[in-house]
Amino acid sequence: MIRTHRLWTTTFLSLIFFGIVAGRLGYLQLYCHAALQERVNREESRFHGMEVPPRGAILDRTGSVLALSIQGGACFADPRHVQHVDETARLLAPLLHLTPAVVKNKLTQHKRFVWLARRLDPEAADQVKAFKCPGVTVTSDVKRFYPEESLAAHVLGVVGDNQEGLSGVELIAERWLSARSIPFLFKPWTFVKTKSSLMNGRTDLTPHSVVLTLDRTLQTIVEQELAAQMKMSRPKSGTVIIQDPQTGEILAMATAPTFDPNLWGSPMQPAEYGPELLKNPAVEHVFEPGSTFKIVTAAAALEEHRVTLADSFFCENGSWEIPGRTIHDHEREGWLTFAQVISHSSNIGTAKVARRLGRDPLYSYARAFGFGMPSGCGLPGDGVGILRQTHEWRQSSLETISFGQEVGATPLQMVNAYSVIASGGWLLEPRLYKGVVDEGGQYREFAQSPPIRRVISPRTVVLMKQILKGVVDEGTGKAAQVIGLSVAGKTGTAQKIDVVTHQYSDAHYLASFCGFAPVDHPRLVIGVFLDEPQGSYWGGSEAAPLFARILKHAVPYLKLQSESFGPLATSRIVTHS
User: Catalytic positions, please?
Assistant: First the structure.
């Protein structure tokens, strides 16, 4: 009886297994056949040197090339026909950027085919071919080339040996760049005619290219200043984002440490180039923002008429015990007006403001500002962040969340939240893709997406600008001042959770500054985020100066004046009523 039971059980499990295998084979044959066949055809064409549509380029908003494909070579061998292995390895090694030992190991494998190198430069391919080594063949191959090297590397991404995107824009726009189909990201097709674009009239555009909203000059400014700050503050990493608050366009997005995508997957790839390096912290790194989040609490309280600028709050001389925790301020503050609570960055004062507001309104306004949901920027790993629903809050969560703890955000979410105030109260979708070059080589610009929603009223916008200007003029953000330009913003110095004790660390902080300029008619929102700076860790002393240097260099480039100037180069400033 037991044997019969086992037999039936074995038979039943075998049927399930073969059913799964059959279902998988049917799925691949019926639903994936076309895509798989296309992939095979592309590989055969590439291997046999047949014509393959060139991969589209990636351009910045002015038409500067950030990524393009060039003709290169690939080298493979049939070890059975290789003669004089040692001599062949010695000749080829320098051209393939490999050691003679590695080349010899490949040439002595018991195989009929082995790759020696892919993505060779044309010069190296020609030199290998000139040696005419028996058993070694050079075939044509395509090499992805990034002329600006590490510039915007985390945004652009990389491709693999088969020229398929592995990260960044290369991955998201893969089907368009490879001339296969229209990515979901670009649907529905909605274009706008523009006479001001620097793309119009150009005849040198590669079909199926992608045009980004990034500005090469601003990106260079940001990366140079960020690199300088990395040397001074010595943080684990740093991120800077610049956004146009009137259109949502991302003008610069930089992360350090960075990498050179030209080296990715090549024999010269440094040992520290691991998969983690391909992640873009600007959209994937979720952190507790700290005091930069206080704009949500302040704006909500003003919008709901729970406070006025003149209302006073007693800040308990720097320490306030509430059920569930003790809240501390970095200074022993007494009575502060509501405006001073923000400009002095008082956690205790902000928590008391939150008590006037209540749980549900604070949660609703945090959602309205874009927290707890993807930004929609069109990059891989677009983070949702952390914003728990109110029924999951602890006893002290209202007070704690009000000053940026127990809530998680990405750098882009923070910058986009400040753009709400800078745009006049509207939440816009961050925009990274400005247009495409169609199959005929014509530039087609995407129409501006409408605002997602109005978050705060014009009245609250005016009051928030006044408060945030006070932060820079006389509060914790004085280091963000730029002569001749009115600046508004907020500092953040967020304690990080210790992974061992699961308590807030007294040694590890995230220093940040988010702000915009000019105050009355903002055209730039800049967010600076430094993870675990060494020595001084305050947002006001580490992040704010970097903000100021970037803004100072951007002023002459964009011809910004204090309160009267034209729109950004090649951008379309829209007005929302």
Answer: 291
Mean per-residue pLDDT over the chain, rounded = 87
| Token pair of 174 as six digits | 């893969």
Euclidean distance between CA atoms 498 and 403, whole angstroms = 19
The answer for residues whose C-beta is within 8 angstroms of residue 164's C-beta and 6 or more apart is: 174, 178
Torsion of CA 411, 417, 418, 423, to 10 degrees: 130
Distance of CA 19 to the CA centre of its chain: 43
DSSP code, position 446: E
Dihedral sign from CA coordinates of 306, 310, 315, 316:
negative
Nearest to 292 by CA among 521, 543, 546, 545: 543
Residues whose CB falls within 8 Å of the CB of residue 577, separated by 6 or more in sequence, listed in order: none
Each residue of 30-73: pLDDT tens digit?
655 554 445 544 444 444 444 557 899 999 999 999 999 988 88
Q: What is the torsion angle, in degrees rounded to the nearest 10, for the CA atoms of residue 535, residue 536, residue 539 and residue 544?
A: -100
458-474 and 294-303 are packed helices; what angle lies between their axes, rounded to 10 degrees? 140
**488 bridge partner residues:** 516
Q: How confident is the model at residue 48, as a pLDDT? A: 47
- For the stretch 480-538, pLDDT in tens is 999 999 999 999 999 998 888 888 888 899 999 999 999 999 999 999 999 999 999 99
